């Protein structure tokens, strides 16, 4: 990358870093406030309207998705920026990238809505602790086994390949214009959601408000996308997840 490109894109990368940093800071403040209360601050108050509970959960999961998943998409963002600069030099790269990232985040917001419904349902069934960690061995084992098995599916491999080789994705899916950038982001984010939804669900076993496990899982998903296929990182993590699930069942039995 030329010095000129580095200078012109510095505000872009700085902006992404600020957004991700603010999300992590919000999650840190929220986690600290919850863990500092006796027994943990409940995620829902008595007689809280369902709509408000769902809204708060959706916002929380959406912020979490931006904090965790945008860093794992930096290879795709960089590839997209390079293609924009080469295909249309007169076009504003930061604006196009902002639209692409907006579409990517929108896909994860859709996942966050579904996660919020699941969280509220489990919380109302007393299956989650105040720190959003499974209170049931059987629920934890089920999540781990499903996540582990999914690591070996053809759907997982297909979607993971889009994240590992973003250039091939863009060459096959390219759309021009502002709407094209947004659609590309949404489509790439969709592949990412399908690739990582089960791993994100594991947060309910580890504790969805644990900053440490958020960071560990983020690094794991980043490694999965960056590691060469020959390393079989997905298979190794799948075996580990299934082994953990079986161990929980055996211990409970």
Q: How many domain units?
A: 1
Strand fraction band?
A: under 5%
Oligomer: single chain
Number of helical regions:
11
Structural class: mainly alpha
- Poorly predicted parts: none
Question: Could you report the average pLDDT, rounded to the nearest whole number?
Answer: 89
C-alpha Rg (nearest Å): 19 Å
One letter per element, helices H and strands E, the order comes to HHHHHHHHHHH
Tell me the number of strands.
0
Main beta sheet, described? none
Helix content class: over 70%
Q: What is the 3D shape?
A: globular
What distance lies between the first and last C-alpha atoms, to the nearest angstrom? 58 Å
Give an overview in words.
- This protein has 253 residues and is an all-alpha fold.
- It has one domain.
- It contains 11 helices and no strands.
- Helix 2 crosses helix 4 (93-124), helix 3 (74-87) packs antiparallel against helix 4 (93-124) and helix 4 (93-124) runs parallel beside helix 8 (177-201).
- The protein starts with a helix and ends with a helix.
- The model has no long low-confidence stretch (mean pLDDT 89).
Helices and strands, with pairings:
Blueprint: H1 3-35, H2 50-69, H3 74-87, H4 93-124, H5 137-150, H6 154-164, H7 166-173, H8 177-201, H9 203-206, H10 211-226, H11 233-252
Helix pairs in contact: 1-2, 2-4, 3-4, 4-8, 5-11, 6-8
In short:
This protein has helices at 3-35, 50-69, 74-87, 93-124, 137-150, 154-164, 166-173, 177-201, 203-206, 211-226, 233-252.
């Amino acid at each position: 990358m030329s010095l000129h490109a580095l200078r012109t894109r510095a505000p872009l990368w700085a902006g992404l870093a600020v957004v991700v940093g603010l999300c992590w800071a919000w999650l840190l403040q929220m986690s600290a406030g919850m863990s500092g209360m006796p027994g943990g601050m409940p995620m829902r108050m008595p007689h809280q309207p369902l709509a408000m509970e769902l809204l708060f959960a959706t916002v929380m999961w959406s912020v979490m998705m931006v904090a965790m998943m945008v860093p794992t998409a930096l290879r795709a963002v960089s590839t997209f920026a390079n293609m924009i600069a080469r295909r249309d030099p007169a076009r504003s790269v930061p604006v196009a990238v902002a639209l692409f990232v907006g579409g990517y985040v929108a896909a994860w917001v859709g996942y966050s809505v579904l996660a919020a419904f699941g969280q509220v349902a489990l919380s109302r069934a007393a299956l989650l602790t105040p720190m959003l960690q499974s209170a049931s061995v059987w629920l934890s084992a089920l999540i781990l086994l499903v996540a582990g098995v999914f690591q070996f599916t053809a759907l997982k491999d297909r979607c993971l390949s889009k994240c590992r080789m973003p250039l091939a994705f863009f060459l096959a899916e390219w759309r021009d214009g502002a709407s094209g950038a947004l659609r590309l982001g949404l489509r790439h984010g969709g592949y990412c959601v399908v690739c990582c939804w089960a791993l994100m669900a594991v947060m309910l076993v580890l504790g969805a408000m644990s900053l440490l496990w958020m960071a560990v899982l983020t690094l794991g998903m980043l490694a999965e996308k960056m590691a060469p296929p020959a390393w079989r990182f997905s298979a190794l993590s799948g075996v580990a997840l299934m082994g953990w699930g079986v161990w929980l069942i055996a211990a409970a039995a």
